[in-house]
Structures are given as C-alpha cells and as structure tokens.
Amino acid sequence: MTYTFKLSRRLAASRSTALLALVVAVAACDSETTAPSTVNSSASIVSTLSVLPRRVTAEVNQPIQFRAVQQDPRGRERRTQTVWSSTGGVVTTDGTFSSSVAGTFKVIGHGRGWRHADTAVVNVVPPDSVARLDLSPATVSLDTNARRAFSATAYGPDGSTVTVGLTWSATGGTIDADGGYTAGAAPGTYRVIVANTAGSVADTSIVTISAAAAAPAPDPAPTLAAVYVLPASATLATGASQQFKAYGKNSAGDSVPVAVSFAATGGTITSAGLYTAGGTGGGFRVIAKDASTGKADTSAVTLNASAPPPPSSSATGIPFGPFGLWASATTLEAGAGPFTTSQNSTDPGTIVTQISAARTMKQTLVLAMTGGAHSNYLTNGAFDLSKWKARMDRFNTSAIRNAVAQGVSDGTIVGNSLMDEPEFKDWGGVVTKSMLDQMASYAKGYFPSLPMGVNHGPGGYRWRATERYRVVDYTVNQYAWVGSKGDLSTWRTAVLSQAALDGVTPAFSLNLLNGGTQDTDGTWDCTGTGGLGTRAPNCRMTASQLDNWGSGLVTSGCALLMWRYDDAFVARTDNKQSFADIAARAASLASQSCRRGA
User: Fold this and answer.
1) Which of 88, 247, 413, 503 counts the highest number of beta carbons within 10 A?
2) Is 154 a member of any domain?
3) Mean pLDDT within 517-535
C-alpha cells in the first residue's frame, strides 16, 4: 500500500499538520504522556484543560500545530482561549511551535485567567533519509464521531527503522499531529495519508465510517496476517555477511514480533538471521517463515562475484596500533614495529589501493571516511549533517563498495569512524547519539557489513549518558591519566557499563603523547614547543604506564588504538619492549568483531 508521489497538489492542504515520533505508538496510546498541571495549587480548582497532541516528534524548523480543549459538564470537548509558552523554540499565539535546533521541549497552554494549564512534549530531531513508510492500521471501520489512533514506521535506505517527522492529512474527519483521527458525522469511505516532510514517500490507510450501531459486536482478537523480512533486498560481495530480521503484522494492522525460521540459497543463514554469502555470484533468496501459520516473506539477495575471492588475512587476535601509522596509502612508517592496525584519514581516491596494500602486509585498517579537520563539516560554527553526507557520498562507487565488503569479510577492515569526539565543543553542541545513529544508518546504506564507530575522548563515555546508541556498532574510548578522572580499573568499569547500556561493542585507546605521568617534582607541566611529536614531553606515558595500561585494556575491547604514532616515542628502547609485550598479549587473545552486540 506504500506509494511515492509529489505533494505539490495532493498534499498541499496538509502542510499545516505537524509531525509524529515514529516507531512508537502515537500519544493517544502512550502511557508516558505528560500529566496535566495546575498553575493554581488550590485543592478546590480542578483543571480540565488539555493540550493536544500530548507528545510529538518534529524535525528542525518544522511547524507543529497544538490546540487546547476543555470538557463541558457532559464530557464534550470545546476549544478554549489559550495563552501559549514553551521552554525552547518559538510558539505563536495560535499554538504553532517550531525550533531551529534539536532538543526536547515543553509547550504549555494556559487557560483563561491562567488558573488552568497543561503541558505537551515535543522532541525536535534533525531530518533523515526515508525509503519507505508503513502506516498502521491499513484499514479500519469506525462509527461516526469515533476516534482512532494511527501510527507509522519509517525505514531508511538500509532497511533499518529511523525516527523522522511526518505530515498527516485525512478525509471524512480530522487528524491531529500525532496521528489521532476523529471521524466525522457522514458515513462513507475515506483516507488517512501520512508522508515524510520532503513529500517524497507516503502511505495511505482506508477508513470506513458507518452510523453507530446500538450494540456493536466486539472486534475479534487480531491474528497474524503477514510476515515481512528486512532488508527486502541486499547486494553483497561473495563471502560477505548480512543481518536479516523479520516482523509480523496482525489483522488489526499493527506490527508485532514473530518467531520465524530462516532459510537461504547461495549461502548459509543462522537461526538469528545472519546470512553469509557463498563463493558463487548470482541471484539468491532469504526466506523467513512463521511455523504456526506458514506465512512467509522472501528477500532477494544478489551476490557480486566480479572480483576473485580475497585471500584470508593472517591477522589474528585483537587489532593493536597507533593512529597515523601509514606514511602513504601504500607504505607504513619506518617504525611500524609490532603494530597490526591503525586509523588514518581515508581518501576515496586511494581507499581501494590501501585496502589491497593492508591485506598484502597483513595489517588491518580502521577507516575514517569522514575524517579530517572539524571545519570541513561546520556551518556557522555548528556541525552540518549535509556536509558530512556529501563527503560520505564520495565513497559510493561499485569499486569501493566491493573492496570494503571484501575487506570486512576477510578481516582486513576493523570498522569505520563516523566522528572524532562528538562531545568536543568545536562541533557546536548540536551532535546527539540519535544524529550519530542517523549517520551510521546512512553509511550502512552503502556499506551494510561495515561496523560503524565513534571515537570518544577520556571522559567522552559520559557524554549524553542518558541517551542510547541504536545503530552505532562500537565506541573507541581513550584513556589518559588526568582526563579519565580515575584509575584504570575504575574508568574501564564505567566505560564497559555505559557500553552495555548503549548496546555497543567497546574498543579502547591510549593517549601516548599527552596522557601520561606527572613531572618528577610532582607538578603537571604540559608546556613545550614544537609540533605534536615534540610537544609536552613530561605528559607522555612512561614505558611502565604504557605496559600496564595497554595490557589492562587490550583484554576488554575489540581493538586497542593509541594517539598517536610518533617516531621518537616508538624508537625508545624501553617503549619498544612495552609495545612488544602488549602485541604479544593482543595476539594471544581471540579476535572479536567490532559489530554491535558482538
């Protein structure tokens, strides 16, 4: 029932409707709605003012129309004169709210005389790419003047759910910004339409309105109507992997969990839906089937065998090495030593060559496709997601996609860094975990098997600790003696705890050059001259600290990185021994994927 169309004519009248928070039920069914508040605390005054919608998600700069109603003694709603205010953004005298920045805000409606008030919550998020909308229920029958809640789920280009704003329109009745539909008084067949804010994707439900019966029969218990498998299609290199998921839709049009068995051609698939492609190119299938009803769905899988299967990497254990280890796209620094991995700025013109070179040298890569100076991604001093996406788009070629898929499959590529230290003030304070999830989803649209990560500074694991990563696979957490604010064991436990809450796989890093011990006189002297390699010699880690802290962290994550390669530091005899000790420890450990939940 999903279809795409232009809104220039068909939805022109619907632009004033506001936006909906997706994936969750609409506010009419939400148990977390904000309770009405009363400005006057006198027990003799009972507020009957209600602000609608109760809870809604908007995109930046998108208007949301709020309204305030009161109930008369017979329980009938009527509009009331209202004074509006908000804790952020702008709300006009008619209750229209908008915000130019992301965040969570309250919109307050004050009744006549300010005796009664009620509060609604609006969550403002950056825009995101939408490939498909799924409106529920698909069909519904209502009595005249009855109310029904509609909800929608949005899917990004990679098939994962995304949170975006929507516009709603309806015939035969009225619909609120949260998808709450109220039928009119005229029987007939009507429509509810939901679309993304760009007007490029939409879905429609059919509403049949009938005159109210004296004693309507209760609706039958909903049953499983269909099974859906995501992604609906996938293109992989031979030997690559892809995670498939399934969900059901019941006869009431609601999305429901479903227990399915997976089967596949052209490769193998686990009971949890992880598909591993075989070595032969062609068109194949992944099938998800519900055992109790026999309902099933199929995803089309295309395996690309244009390149011969890559040789197996000899890299074993936990990847270990400093940032900036590569002198060029094809050569390592002279003091490469025992290191097995490095994160370097990644260029679309040389990435294919570097992946091949790393494979030959038995090295692994942490890519940084969108690395470089902060200023490359700022507009008016704040992070600009469109500039980030434009950089990522440069990697969307068949040659790069195939090279990356092969590198992930044979272990040459550890992951890709989406951003370095989002908690850093130079990003303008607009970056959230939700935004980083959007970035991960966008990148996975090109590279579905590539783990996506975020680099955090010494205290960065505490950044937005109450928010949750939903798509990001791993976080790199850097330890420094002062910046981490605690001994290694305490700090590591806190990082692992936060990683578990976020569902990400932890990785670690050491700040070699500016994260070490104090001066011999007990002072903290981090002054000095020269470039990064010669600055702050008294803040560098000692060989003992390097050995102790590195050995303590390499056992706890999917990789151990270090900031950063410095030829003089690496060449010191005592440091060489410490690096060798850590490398031996890393090689003795079982390798661990940096994929989410690994």
Assistant:
1) 413
2) no
3) 44
